[in-house]
Design a protein that fits this description.
It is built from 14 helices and ten strands. The strands form two sheets. Strands 1-2-3-6-7-8-9-10 form an eight-stranded parallel barrel, surrounded by four helices. The chain has a two-stranded antiparallel ribbon with strand order 4-5. Helices cover about 35% and strands about 10% of the residues. By secondary structure, it is an alpha/beta fold. The radius of gyration is 22 Å and the shape is globular. α11 links the parallel β8 and β9.
């Protein structure tokens, strides 16, 4: 009887490890575009205030079990780091191309060694707390619709090579159909990877712009000039992005093979209504058909080390059910070397009506527990840090509680995830 009891205990412990011990990546996005998360508008141009705010964010995230940050350092072909190629972001200093005067910085000069490099400084602070740093880059975007081109500095590549860009819905983008734009992005990636002690290069869902009604993407001229054998402009656009992802992947591996490459796509690849292998969803926009991002190909080709789909919908949502999509993405990575992390939306808990799914109980907690029933899901990431730390509906407490149920070895102590 005692032997049987020991066997049962062993089985229960094994089940606990399988269900609650697999989520090793516990991330949070720190968005800098439009000062969403960091620095605050009050801290723009103020180094001391920026450092105080970052320490608060890192300490608060670490306290609830987060062991990685995805830090946005290139929101609009600018830099929140000491770039050798692109101007400092106006969201950091107040004016693009002009560094904070409180550290005597002028362009790339560093008098008396008193340089404040936000990325280097943040990496050091994060690593002190055993937290990974994934550097988040937006590959094509040059400005936001609400920030016109008058704010773009004279030394920006947009000023030097206007022929590399086109405008869509009041925003400017690198033309993905040009070889020089892919080469430029790879140059930026190589510069960062070679100089900073980071764990990953990260890109989100902004490749080709999200559709704006019937407005056409102005790339017909580039397609006519450089078709590369394609006759369908949609296939050509997908190939443009494929070439960029493959080139970035190769750049990272050739420069420093220990660095991961991760993509956080929109949550739906394709709907089953147009592709039987797609998900049982009815999304109005999909990666493949509208954003020209063939995530499936990138996973199967081994170009990316992790995929982090943005599943910002609730369990049971008719057109995009979190549970259906979590299983669909799990199936996509099964048998590959690509890890699956899930992007989650605590911001949706804020101001949620009492009759909505996000206003009843805690949807994030429900989703986290569902994740632990799917073996392929080995990580989670929350968008974004400031809304998360406002703790809507006690989400920080529930995240900490779920993580505390996991194995201690999956805590923030082992922060480097080696390439498989």
């Amino acid at each position: 009887m005692a032997k049987l009891r020991n066997i049962l205990v062993f089985c229960l412990l094994s089940f606990s490890v399988a269900v609650f011990g697999q989520v090793t990546f516990r991330g949070a996005w720190i968005a800098t575009v439009a000062n969403i998360d960091w620095p605050s508008q009050e801290a723009v141009g103020n180094t001391e205030k920026q450092q105080e705010e970052m320490i608060f964010l890192l300490d608060s995230l670490h306290a609830i079990g987060i062991n990685a940050i995805i830090f946005q350092v290139r929101p609009t072909a600018d830099a929140l780091y000491r770039s050798n190629y692109e101007p400092v972001s106006h969201w950091l200093t107040g004016k693009q191309g002009v560094w904070n005067t409180d550290v005597q910085m002028v362009n790339v000069k560093c008098p008396n060694g008193k340089c404040y490099d936000p990325l280097a400084w943040t990496i050091n602070e994060a690593h002190k707390r055993h937290m990974e740093v994934h550097v988040w880059l937006n590959p094509y975007r040059v400005n936001l619709a609400k920030t016109d081109t008058s704010m773009i500095s004279a030394d920006h590549i947009f000023r030097k090579h206007p022929e590399w860009f086109w405008e869509y819905n009041k925003q400017w983008y690198f033309d993905p159909g040009l070889d020089v734009t892919r080469e430029w992005i790879c140059t930026i990636v190589q510069d960062i990877v070679s100089r900073y002690d980071i764990q990953a290069i990260h890109m989100d869902d902004y490749f080709y712009p999200y559709p704006a009604g019937k407005l056409q993407i102005p790339d017909a001229e580039t397609f006519a000039k450089y078709p590369r054998g394609f006759t369908d402009i949609r296939d050509w656009r997908r190939n443009n992005v494929n070439l960029a992802i493959q080139a970035i992947s190769s750049t990272i591996r050739e420069c420093k093979d220990s660095i991961q490459f991760g993509i956080s796509p929109f949550g739906v690849w394709r709907n089953a209504s147009v592709d039987s292998t797609g998900s049982a969803t009815q999304a109005g926009i999909t990666n493949y058909d509208d954003l020209y991002a063939d995530i499936r190909l990138w996973i199967r080709s081994g170009w990316i080390d992790y995929v982090l789909p943005q599943l910002y919908w609730e369990i049971g949502k008719k057109v995009a059910d979190y549970e259906i999509l979590a299983h669909w993405w799990a199936n996509e990575v099964r048998g590959t070397n690509c890890r699956l992390y899930i992007g989650m939306a605590p911001y949706r808990l804020e101001n949620a009506g009492p009759k909505t799914p996000w206003g009843q109980g805690n949807e994030i907690s429900r989703q986290m527990r569902l994740n632990r029933t799917i073996p392929e899901i080995t990580g989670e990431c929350f968008y974004s840090t400031r809304p998360l730390l406002r703790n809507p509906r006690g989400v920080c407490d529930s995240i900490k509680a779920v993580y505390s149920e996991s194995e201690k070895k999956d805590s923030a102590q082992d922060f480097t995830l080696p390439r498989e």
